[in-house]
Amino acid sequence: MSTEIVRGAGSRVMASDGREYIDLMSGFGAVFLGHCRADIADALKRQADSLWACARFEHPASAQARSAIEAILPTGYHFGGLYSTGMEVAEFAMRVAARHTGRREFVGFASSMHGKSVATAALAWANAPVGSTQMHLLPFVSTATEDQIVEQLTGLLAGGRIAALFVEPIQGSNGGHEGSAAFYERLIEACHAHGTLCIFDEILTGLYRTGPCFHSDSLQARPDVVLFAKSMGNGFPVSGIALREPLGVAADALPGSTFSGNPLAAATVAATLGAMGALDMTTLVTGIDRTVRQRFASRTDLFTLRGRGALWVLEASPRVDMPKALEGIRVQGVLASSHGRCIRLLPAATIGLDDLDRACGAIEQAAEAAIVKAA
């Protein structure tokens, strides 16, 4: 049964039939500070009353957004521009890498998610609608060892044709699989040894989703490019790119597009990052991490738990009837996304921990009720 959502407030949404749900989808992770947060909504409304679009001209909101973004970037990185979606900024990163290296081939990991355009799909999906001999897919840690992956990557890089490697540090659309910190550092070092850029797609993991501002903050070796989006507009479509010095953006990389960096998006970014700065985001996300672990870590009879912070995937046991479990979760007033046998939890950082625990309890109960009894 489809559900029509008509209103949201914080971590709850209301449907047209009057039912209220605890929202663990958060607009696929975009609404990270909760639905209809007043200070962000007010900033968007003020901007909507003055200017919506102005082509490539500067406007006051662009300076505010730039300042807010530069304040959160790790040392040694600079802001490379705003775009409209994660898919768009991923494609722009390809152009930056091609222009910088003079190469035209790329490497990605199977079943990552960098977008659904022809180029970004070919970078991650074996069933992409248009294949390309310029896109190379490597297995990820769900199907190969880290040593095997590094060996395959090194073989590709040795040919001197690879412009960039794309890394989604936690595969949010593929079971929450994640490599070790040492693995990511080896990938980065291998890229640098062969003149290849390493691009971390933190569109989902960035901006405190996993605890620190960026997932890559804890690495000793640092990626050349970091992509971020989703939560930076708290639901308004916007994305960004950070480049490690001395990497820059050349004019023939074709920066910008019709809607990139528009005043509405920029005003929302400035307000969202300002709100994040006023909150203790790491403490909020740590509370979510603790709550989810306490509820599910011991329930190996029901789920395999993967993730961290405010990004979790529950891979259901083969004993769980998934359609029945998913229906039970919805009936108990919880919204969570699913793919195959996986349930993904993307709560807002501002969710009340009592609400989160109640929602997790509903998921646990629905899975228990959906266990298929042995014949």
UniProtKB/TrEMBL annotation:
Cofactor: pyridoxal 5'-phosphate
Family annotation (Pfam families): Aminotran_3
Superkingdom of the source species: Bacteria
PROSITE patterns on file: AA_TRANSFER_CLASS_3
Gene3D superfamilies, per the entry: Aspartate Aminotransferase, domain 1, Type I PLP-dependent aspartate aminotransferase-like (Major domain)
Gene Ontology molecular function: any one: identical protein binding
Keywords: Aminotransferase, Pyridoxal phosphate, Transferase
UniProt record similarity statement: Belongs to the class-III pyridoxal-phosphate-dependent aminotransferase family.
PANTHER family: ACETYLORNITHINE AMINOTRANSFERASE, MITOCHONDRIAL, AMINOTRANSFERASE CLASS III
The protein's name in its UniProt record: Aminotransferase class III-fold pyridoxal phosphate-dependent enzyme
Organism per entry: Piscinibacter terrae
UniProt lineage: Bacteria, Pseudomonadati, Pseudomonadota, Betaproteobacteria, Burkholderiales
